[in-house]
Amino acid sequence: MIRERRNKEKLASYYKKFMDEGIVDPNVHPWVAESWQRCRAMRLPHETMPKINKLSREEIAEHQKTHEFIVKYVDGLYEQSKQHFNIHNLSMLLIDENGYVIKNYAMPFFQRIIEDIQGMRVLEEDVGTSSISVAREHNVPFLMFGPEMWIKDSHSGDACSAPICVNGKIRYIISFFSLDQNDLPYDLLLSLLLTMKYSIEQHLAMLESWTINQIMMEQLPVTVYWLGKDGSVKYCNKNGQKRLDGHEHLEDVFLNYEHIPIKKALKGVATQRREITWITQDRTYEDITTVMPIKVGSEVESALVLSMSIEDLKTTIAHATGYSSRYSLYSMVGETAEFLALQHKASRVARTDHNILLQGEPGTGKQRLAHGIHQASPRAAAPLIAVKCHNAPLEELEVEFFGSSDGDQQSAGKLELAMGGTLFLDEVEKLPLEMGDKLAEALTHGLPPKKKGEKPRVFDVRVIAACDSNLKRLADKGLFSRKLYELVLDTTMRVPPLRERGKDIEVIAGHILVEMSAQHNLPQKRLSPEAVSLLLSCSWPGNIKQLQGVIEQAFFHTPGSIIEAENIKLPGDKTMERSWKYDKEAFIAAWKSAGGNISKLANMLDVSRVTLYRYLKKYGLGPKTK
C-alpha cells in the first residue's frame, strides 16, 4: 500500500501512548492498530527483540535446498540492484509462506538488532507488528514507518514488504528495511519492491507452466527436440535422449539427417505431421514428425521437433477412442451348468492365442464375452478393435479394414489399429464373401508393402468373430467366405439363449440392477419375489439384451428401493401368428429370435419351410440368387 511520508515524532508519540495507556490514537493506521492490539493481548515484549522461533542448522540447510530454485532467481535480481541497496543502506529478506526467512541480503539493519536472522520465523506472534505481518495478512504491499513497528529496537528504520502470489495464493514475501530515515526516496523503494514482486511472480508462473509442460513431454509417447540455430540440441526429453545416445547433434546420430526437414524449419518453413524415417547405425524409427520454426520477432532462432512412433500413435489412438476391453469374464453372471461351463471354457481359451467363433442368438452376450476373453488374455494391454460387420461396397470395406494412403492423407485401418491385440468381428455373417476372402488373406499372409523394397505388412492379430446364425451352413452354401470361416474355426463356442438358462434370470437381473446403481450413482434397488416370478414367466426371445432393457426401464420408473411386479413392463406378446405375414418388422424380429435358422423359424411360426422362403424373398431377406 503506497503511503505518504509521516511525521516520525508524532508516530512515536502514538506508539508511547498505546504502550503506556493502551489507547489507540485515531491517526494510527487501522491495520497497524489492529496488530498492536493483538500483540498486547499476546503479551509480546516490545522493548527488544525476543527469542525467536528458529530452525536448526540442518533444517536451515534443507530449507534453502527446498527453495533453491527461487533463491537463485532472487540472487540475480539482487545483483542487478545491489548498488542501490548499498547507497541507501537497504536490507532485504526472502521469506517463505510460513514466515521463515530463507535468505537475507545486505544486512546493515539486521546486524544492529540481531545476529543472524536466516531460518527465523518473523510472523506477528514472533516479532509483533511489522510490514511483513501486515502484508501477509492483507495480501498487499505495505510500507511501515519505524515507530509503527512493535519492537522498539526497530524504530530506527522503515520497512516495506510485498507478498509474492501465484494463482491467488501467497508463496513468498520479500521485505526491505532501511536505516536512512531522512533522505530515503520512498517512491524508489516502492518502485523497486513492486518491480521485484512482479518479476518473481512471473518467474514462478513460468516455472509452473514449464513443469507441467515437462511432465506432458515425458509422459506422452513422443520424442521432443529443441534445436538451436546451429542445429545443436538445446533440450530434449527422455525419449529424445535415448535416441541421441549421448551425442549433442542429431546429424551425429541419424544417417539420413539431410533428408529430415530440420534445415527447412531453421529457414522458416514448417513441416507438419509427415511420415518420416529416422535411420541410425543400429535401428530405424518410423515416425509421424512435425518440425516447427521458433521465431523471436521476425527472425528464426531455433526449431522444435515433435516425433511419434507410428506404432505408438496407433495404440494411443486406439485407446483414446475407446478401443479397450470394457468387460471382464466375471461381469457375466449365472449359476446354471450351461453358463458355468461356458465361463470356464472362455477362461481357458483366453490364455491361448487361438482365433474364436462365438455362435448364439442375438442378445445372448457375445460382445461382452468377446471383451472378457480379450481382457483375460495375454493381449489385454493391447487394443481391442470391434467392427460391426455390414454389407457395403468393397472399396469402402477395404478402407475400413486396411486403411488408405492418398498422398499426405493417410489413415490406419482396423487391422493396423488392432496390432498386438484382438480384432472383434461382430455379426461376421454380414461380411460380403469377397471381403471375407481379402480379410482372411491379409490375416494369413499380410498385405503388399506400401513402397518398393519394403516387406509385406504382417498383422499380429487375434480374431474373435460373433455370428447370430450357422456360419458353416452359410459357407457351405457359398454365402460366406470359406477362407475366413476356416480361419476363425480354431475354437467354436456356443452361447446359450436365456430360455435355456431359466435359473439365471434372477441372478442376471440382480446384476443388472447393481450395474445400473453404480453407473448412475443412485441407491441400489432389488426385485420383489412377485417381480422375479413375472420375469421367469417370460420366454425372452431377445435374450439378455431384452431382459436388460426391461430391468433398466423398471429401475428408472420405480420410486422406491423395491421393484414390484407392477413396475415391470414385459415385452409385448408378439407370437406373430398373423402379424409376421403383413409386418416386415415383426417377421425380422422373429427371424432374429431364431438366429437366422430356417428350421427353427418354421417351428416357431408353425409353417412350412417353403412358405418361409417365399416370405424371405418377399421381404428381401433371403440369399441373393445370381
Question: Which descriptors apply to this entry?
Answer:
626 residues; alpha/beta; five-stranded antiparallel β-sheet; 42% helix
How many individual helices? Answer: 25
Query: Using only CA atoms, what is the Rg?
Result: 39 Å
Largest β sheet strand count, sense and barrel closure: 5 strands, antiparallel
% residues in beta strands: 15-25%
The whole-number mean of residue pLDDT values reads 85
Helix content: 40-55%
The coarse overall form would be: elongated
Identify the strand order in the major beta sheet.
Answer: 2-1-5-4-3
Low-confidence stretches: 573-578
Classify the secondary structure makeup into a structural class: alpha/beta
Compute the number of strand runs. 19
N- and C-termini, Cα separation: 92 Å
How would you explain this protein's 3D organization?
- Strand 8 (271-279) and strand 9 (284-296) form a beta hairpin.
- The N and C termini lie far apart (92 Å).
- This protein is of the alpha/beta class.
- Mean pLDDT is 85; it is low at 573-578.
- The chain has a five-stranded antiparallel sheet with strand order 2-1-5-4-3, sandwiched between helices. It has a five-stranded antiparallel sheet with strand order 7-6-10-9-8. Strands 12-15-16-11-17 form a five-stranded parallel sheet.
- Helices cover 42% and strands 18% of the residues.
- It contains 25 helices and 19 strands.
- 33% of the residues are buried.
